[in-house]
Design brief:
The complex is a heterodimer of chains A (558) and B (110). With 558 residues, chain A is of the alpha/beta class. Chain A folds into three domains: 239 residues, FAD/NAD(P)-binding domain (3-Layer(bba) Sandwich); 108 residues, Succinate dehydrogenase/fumarate reductase flavoprotein, catalytic domain (Flavocytochrome C3, Chain A, domain 1, Alpha-Beta Complex), CATH 3.90.700; 138 residues, Methane Monooxygenase Hydroxylase, Chain G, domain 1 (Up-down Bundle). Chain A is 36% helix and 16% strand. Chain A is built from 16 helices and 21 strands. The radius of gyration of chain A is 23 Å and the shape is globular. Chain A starts with a strand and ends with a strand. Chain B contains two helices and seven strands. In chain B, strand 6 and strand 7 form a beta hairpin. Chain B is globular, with a radius of gyration of 15 Å. Chain B starts with a strand and ends in an 8-residue tail after the last strand. The mean pLDDT of chain B is 94. The chains are: A alpha/beta (558), B mainly beta (110). Chains A and B meet through helix 3, helix 9 and helix 10 of A and strand 5, strand 6 and strand 7 of B. The complex binds flavin-adenine dinucleotide and iron/sulfur cluster (2 copies). The site of flavin-adenine dinucleotide has 41 residues of chain A, from helix 1, strand 4, strand 7 and helix 11.
């Protein structure tokens, strides 16, 4: 493995929604800046946006204000959110959408030229090519894009982040990238829990399977403070293909019914708000219906007209082509058969829920030189794609300002050799465990002991303590993973990262001794919500020297 | 199976250092075999995102659902035009349906 040194002013790790937008923003403000984007896949189609999107889910339609947006998110998350972060996002939403429209994103319009709304805080787009459109905007800037280079660790001198290491999957080189500021934008973490689909269909999941939580893991390993990992995200999705249900429920106005055809939310869950309940309660009700013997549950699409049905298919082709295949199979046409819904396995994401780096309002992490945006940044749920862009804009401005007058730090050869050896280790081994074995072991532990699908997401202390023990053992096995080629090496590194994330997650799940969010964090041993004690953030800092995870509480702020 | 590559149609993207499907797959699953035909290294790792399906200039790749999830054999193909995407879905009985969907505003280009 040779070494490729790269020097830059700002390094962006992850060229997804937030990463691409950050690069464009930096050049808008400061055309002479040097920017490098390190991307594991290819920026043309990477991360969550690879398939496309059919809606911008965070937008202030007429009648909405930043204040009303913050109140909405606060209510959805039972009072625990970083209002300062959510407010700063809400203020920028409409502007960033306009910018992306100018890059070439087609947005559906009403006859009077206004955007076609999909609910109060969402608009409809033709977003199949949203990712290539963002990538094209990046290519118009002088940013240097390193595709197929997987970030593995930050370069950290004990005081500040001075760059990052990456492994070139095509050229087998170690990239040593020095920077005055590093923006991490690697998305959230999938694959921590055993997925709904297994075997041949294991990656037919909702979240991007290659957002493996590496950005979190790299931060954890240098002791960056993380927040709210216990606020897991579990999505209510179309069974098997995991297509978003909002497109059908809000977009096409279909009713949600149980196996008996009853409007179960209104009939049995009126105390939670019926059809107007919180997102998490819609999921809870669906899980409960199955337990009560009234499942499975469906979205009733059988009343759609021909035109509405075709429109629905078009909407999905721009975001989730799999469902079209499902509907083309025998007896599955949505007009003939209602669409079955189910909960996914839990994911760790900061864009729908709020797991991620603890950041200040300017998107600085707790480690100097390091900024976090998008799904990897915590405290601001429901930011979605447009909120990720706003965060990218804020971090770009902060990074530019903070790096004025700074010089690149030297990197000790010893540090480089150590990372090289760590990355290379799985390739050197002749026998051991495969990445698949390690992944399946992790997913089994998390599913059974930390509230996965098979446990109906429920948690309690005794099982979590066992998860803690088993994960510690599994971490030891990390050094036994064998890789026979670069593809497997990336899988091996992903496993190691996922284990680091899972360990922090389990500590968070143990620490919050109440039930704050239904299904996302349901404690069987502490079933009630306790506002006197737990209106706080649960944060953590890992100590790499002692291998201990220290828990910290932070008060809510205004 | 999640994607099916028709070797009779695949031209191997000859002349390119990297095949188009290989360049685009977000999971790095496509590669060119020695005979310059595309292949997928692990069907079970496929997200069925259709990026490779859209990127192939000769429509050699079809999207399918794994048998575990659906046994009917429906398949989906796509063609990219400058500002739209054309999808063709073929169901189990061979019925075809086409969708033409806007994907980009060209005003930014000119
Ligand atoms: C299936 C799906 C549908 C969605 N639909 C909508 C919708 O309709 N409307 C909406 O508003 N939002 C939607 N979202 C949410 C939205 O896509 C995300 O909030 C947004 O993409 C987050 O941006 P990000 O940059 O943080 O992550 P991403 O866009 O996923 O980008 C992360 C990037 O980091 C790269 N990366 C990961 N690890 C590494 C590494 N080790 N080294 C280098 N690079 C790395 C990835 O390849 C990727 O390019 C959807 C999400 C999903 C998964
Ligand atoms: S893009 Fe199409 S033609 Fe090119 S190698 Fe892949 S399958 Fe073959
Ligand atoms: S469908 Fe997507 S994940 Fe599967 S091989 Fe093609 S590009 Fe890769």
């Amino acid at each position: 493995m040779g070494i490729i040194p790269v020097d830059t002013d700002i390094l962006i790790i992850g060229g997804g929604a937030a990463g691409c937008f950050a690069a464009v923003e930096i050049y808008k403000r400061y055309p002479n800046c040097r920017v490098v984007i390190m991307e594991k896949a290819h920026i043309d189609r990477s991360g969550c946006l690879a398939m496309g999107l059919n809606a911008i889910n965070a937008y202030l339609n007429p009648g909405q204000t930043p204040e009303s947006y913050v109140s909405f998110v606060e209510r959805q998350f039972e009072g625990v959110i970083r209002k300062d972060l959510v407010y700063s996002i809400a203020q920028g939403l409409n502007e960033v959408v306009k910018d992306v429209e100018e890059m070439g994103l087609p947005i559906e319009k009403n006859e009077d030229g206004t955007y076609r709304r999909k609910g109060k805080r969402s608009i409809r787009i033709f977003g199949e090519r949203l990712k290539p459109i963002l990538a094209e905007a990046v290519k118009k800037t002088p940013a240097q894009v390193l595709n197929r280079v997987v970030a593995t660790n930050f370069i950290y001198n004990g005081k500040r982040v001075c760059g990052a290491f990456g492994y070139g999957v095509r050229d087998s080189m170690l990239y040593v990238i020095r920077a005055n500021a590093v923006i991490v934008a690697t998305g959230g973490a999938s694959g921590i829990y055993r997925p709904n689909n297994t075997g041949e269909a294991r990656n037919l999941m909702w979240y991007c399977p290659w957002n493996a939580g590496t950005g979190y893991a790299m931060g954890i390993r240098i002791g960056a403070e993380m927040t709210s990992f216990e606020n897991r995200f579990i999505a209510l999705r179309v069974k098997d293909v995991h297509a978003p249900t909002g497109t059908i429920a809000v977009g096409a106005g279909s009713r949600q019914v149980n196996a008996r055809g009853e409007d179960y939310l209104e009939l049995y869950y009126k105390h939670l708000g019926g059809n107007k309940c919180l997102t998490q309660h819609r999921l809870l009700a669906t899980v409960e219906e199955t337990k009560a013997g009234r499942g499975p549950c469906f979205l009733d699409t059988t009343t759609l007209s021909e035109t509405e049905e075709r429109r629905l298919k078009e909407d999905f082709l721009s975001m989730n082509p799999q469902i079209i295949l499902l509907w083309a199979s025998e007896g599955m046409n949505p007009k003939k058969r209602p669409v079955e819904v189910q909960g996914t396995e839990p994911f760790i994401v900061g864009g729908h829920c709020q797991s991620g780096y603890w950041i200040d309002k300017e998107r600085r992490t707790t480690i100097p030189g390091l900024y976090a945006v998008g799904e990897v940044a915590g405290g601001a749920p429901k930011k979605y794609v447009s909120g990720s862009w706003v965060e990218a804009r804020i971090a770009a401005a902060t990074a530019l300002e903070d790096m004025q007058g700074r010089n690149l730090e030297d990197v000790d050869d010893e540090v480089i050799q150590k990372e090289k050896a760590r990355i290379h280790a799985p390739l050197m081994k002749k026998s051991g465990i495969s990445p698949q074995q390690a992944r399946e072991r992790l997913q089994k532990i998390m599913d059974e002991f930390a509230g996965g699908v098979s446990m109906s997401y429920a948690l309690h202390e005794e099982r979590l303590i066992e998860a803690r023990r088993l994960l510690k053992l599994l971490k030891e096995h990390g050094k036994d993973i064998v890789a026979v080629n670069n593809y497997h090496l990336v899988e091996a590194l992903e496993c190691i990262d996922r284990i680091d994330v899972a360990r922090v997650l389990v500590e968070h799940l143990i620490y919050r001794k109440e039930t704050r969010w239904a299904c996302y964090q349901t404690r069987l041993d502490y079933p009630g919500k306790d506002d006197n004690r737990w209106l706080v953030f649960v944060n953590s800092v890992y100590n790499p020297d002692t291998d201990e995870i220290k828990m910290i509480e932070r008060p809510l702020c205004s | 199976m999640s994607i099916f590559i028709d070797e009779n149609i695949c031209n191997g993207c000859k002349g390119l250092p990297e095949a188009r499907c290989e360049r685009i797959c977000p999971g790095d699953l496509c590669y060119r075999k020695e005979n310059m035909k595309a292949a997928i290294r692990d069907q079970s790792a496929c997200w069925t995102c259709a990026c490779c399906v859209k990127e192939c200039p000769v429509q050699a790749i079809e999207l399918k659902l794994p048998f575990q999830v659906c046994s009917s054999g429906a398949s989906l193909k796509a063609r990219l035009k400058r500002d739209k995407t054309i999808w063709t879905i073929r169901d189990a009985d061979g019925h075809q349906e086409e969708f033409i969907i806007q994907a980009k505003c060209l005003k930014g280009d000119t």
